[in-house]
Amino acid sequence: MHMHNESYTAQQIRRKRERGQRMAKARWAGVRARQRAEEEAIQRDPLRAAQMLAPQCCIVQRVVVIGADQLAREIVRWSTTTARQWAKLKRSVGL
Residue 72 contacts by C-beta under 8 Å, 6 or more apart in sequence? Predict the structure, then answer.
């Protein structure tokens, strides 16, 4: 509701607050819907639901580095490895 004695700045703050509250309600409604769907899936078939909810992790790349001192070092890139983690792993073996 607009208050006649409300300053322009106060109006803008109120409008932004109300918009943020609407967006948060919509976001949380989506989260609750996903949680309900997951709970229903677990009720129907617990084993399959566990497989669906667990992240699938597999090896994408495996690198073996053999140095001049005949020391072999291996790094493994998994499907869940981020670009930053992969760069750090490569630096750790001298690539």
Answer: 64, 65, 66
